Amino acid sequence: MSNVSLLLSRLQAAAGLVLVLAALLLNPWFIEANVVRDGTLEQKTYVLAADALLLVLGLILIMRVKNTRATTVDSRSVQIAVAALLISAGVALLLAEAAVRIALDPQHLFGADEDGWWQLRWQASQSLVADDALTPEAFSFDIHDPVLGWSPKPGFRSDNIRINSRGVRADREYPLDKMPESLRVVVVGDSFTWGEDVANEDTFVTQLEKIMPDTEAINLGVRGFGTDQQLLRLKREGLVYNPDVVILIFYEGNINRNILSFRDFGKPRFSMANNYLELMNQPVPTREEYHDMEVALPSFRIGKLATNAWMDVVTATKLHPPLEERKKWKITSAILGEARRASESAGAQFLLGYIADSESVVPGELEQVMADWADATGTHFINFGDVYRARPGEEWEQIYQGHLTPYGNRLTAETIAAKLRALGLESTVSTNQVIRSR
Fold this sequence. Notes:
alpha/beta, five-stranded parallel beta sheet, two-stranded antiparallel sheet, 47% helix, elongated
């Protein structure tokens, strides 16, 4: 026998409080706003029923708490009280887990930096996809590629998009052997390089040819690509053109793509093994294989939501380690290093360009880390973020409309041309013309 002041009452109150808190967490207004915005009436009814049950049980326990100063309690009563608390917590978790499984779209269990989010999004979109397309109409001209995941369809033609026979966005063919006196530039990147929302003639790659006479600029940009895919395409398709210069255009969102094996579609990714890049997800499965593939869902969904919420807090409060110490940067920097090594081994100069997001009106952490990496490795570097921000404020919207506008592409091409000339990289024909003009 032991004299325990208010133990039973406090344990009972705690059990009731656990149930009430669970009810507050699962209230239908919270669920409606954050989980099942478009949920069915049946789903919302289940959530409301679970919520009401938790609330009623919690209030009953709290109201039955006895107002006493002390009581003599034997050890068995203590054990029963503790068991009641644990059971209450367990019931609350089970009801919460059941409600989440019924009402929550599984896609919300994942963040946008996880494969599951993108794969479930892709599966949900398949009713909108034509039989010969990988993704909805925005990507209707891409075809499955077992190495890259997807690539531009050779010979595709539309009003604004023309792809040559080798999958290059261009109005003409480029022979593998370049003209002796010309400057050949191969550009790899994602949709910014590809030229999203602009016609062939307005991409910065095409405009670079116009600004720098006797220059061949080959556009190997592909929409949605990560830096990993850009490296693989450079090695497979870019270096065979024997370029004088390789330009890799890095968009700030690429860093998150580099840790995914599924985004707009399945893709390769690299992991790090003993400080070396190791290629994974090869060959990339076909559309049919992905269609039949089940996405692995968390076995304890409440736990996954709690983890996601904690990671949101970590991100918002900047409690995470510096970017240089995180996995996605280590992989990204290794990919960039390999792109430079491969380019220089093929006899080409390597130039890295950084494009910030249209909402990045002030430099972010990644932008500085990228500039520091380029400086530390001696890599030629253009920070387009600085270039764009240096323009008058009203020009910002003229540069970006989600992606680069024709004007933004023109400014980008002019910046690249100025950098190449500053490095002494231009065609010998142009150089001779300058000398003769003097």
